[in-house]
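Students often ask why we bother encoding 3D structure as a string. The short answer is that it lets us treat folding as translation between two languages. Here is a chain of 481 residues written in the first language.
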Amino acid sequence: MLRFRIATIALLAALLLGTAGLGVATASHNEAMFFEAPRDLIGVTPAARAKAIGQLQWLGVKALRVELVWRNVAPRPTSARKPNFNATNPASYAWGDYDALLAEAQRLKWQVLLTVTAPVPKWATAAKKDYVTRPGARDFQEFMTAVGKHYGSEVSLFAIWNEANHPAFLLPQFNSHGRPESGRIYRGLFQAGYGGLKASGIARPKVLMGETAPVGSDSLSRREIRERGLLHDVAPLAFLREALCLSSKYRKSGTCEALPAYGYAHHAYTVGSPHYKPKERDDVTIGVISRLSSALDRAAAAHAIPAHLPIYLTEFGIQSYPNRELGVPQPKQAEFDAIAEKIAWSDPRVAAFSQYLLRDDKLGGKPGSSVHGGFIGFQTGLEEYGGKRKPLYYGFPVPLVVSRHGHRYSLWGIVRPATGATEVTVLVEPKGSHKYRTLAKVHTNAAGAWTLGSSVQGSRWRVNWRSPAGVAYTGTPIGAS
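And here it is in the second language, the structure alphabet:
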């Protein structure tokens, strides 16, 4: 999906024109919207997958993020002893549903971001006792060679590891002195994975680094280690510095080569509102995405990565009820999700945004229990676990943000299923009224993006759109922020 920034003069003109102002936007650069729905697309019947694909098409999805779990396709993954097989040959692996899903994505001409990740075969780990401790770089390089040979023509972007700064996916995160350890391990995995893709015949692999979780610690005190052990996340910017051999002041060790990353992937989850700003300076949620931009610029200045590395927000969602630990009311989920997307859309550094889950997980344990083997359920989906549709299901295809500026309002939205410039109807429920009326007919740009200025005092707003095929979309009601 192309991203369009609002030209300042056009926005001012729209505000002055009030409800008569048509949405005007100018092109900046491409921004993909990746959708990830693992339980609805992997490990299901062909009929269930086809149903989910149909839903994604209705929602306007044009790109998928798929996590390829090494353990799921490797031979004898529960054995501590490595079997005798040609690890660079794709025929040695049981690709299963991944083949069917990527073939369908290719048929639909959808982009695919393939994140190759843990858990890994037990025989590929250092201790041979679990599935995440110090995966062997040589084994991983051989596996990535097979991945590149098998999926190279079907994948737009590769990424190395999911949340490598989280102890559920990579160990150890910290050494016995409380200093970050996972970044250096990750560096070796990234180099091995990149080398494996090149060995597969891909001359210039497009590989994202990072895929980092949003919060963590820079170091652990002796008291923290004594009371809670070493199972903590490393803060994403601390992890970034370790992976790039950078000091806390972003000075690079002379023995470290720059990593050939195509972009930096991050999971900018927030706590409640998208505007939440964590106090810890090395944490990065959607409300402080500029911290990551600054860190990448400083790393590039130290010649640790290429300059102007784009940011890919490859996993995101707003938790809703029935999650009582982190969730917000379901109508707020739709509102906050649109605000978060607008934050990403307004940042020229961000090359991609994402939605994690079509259908909610089952409710799981408390946050943090996954590091001890527990299950953490995400309620970021467009549907509840049982299939009941949330307001976000109807808001996702036509996201809307209404911002109050004194006695005026600025509106922003996207018609996600559109394949070109189109017209959308914006409705308002005036204050004191219980009926919607047409506020304006707005023309979008080629990517379906639009903006509007208005002086009409409203309680709630929503949008209507009809596709060229006659499919009607009615967005969820949105309040002003």
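Translate back mentally: The chain has two domains: 1-28+398-481, 31-396. Keep this in mind for the problem set.
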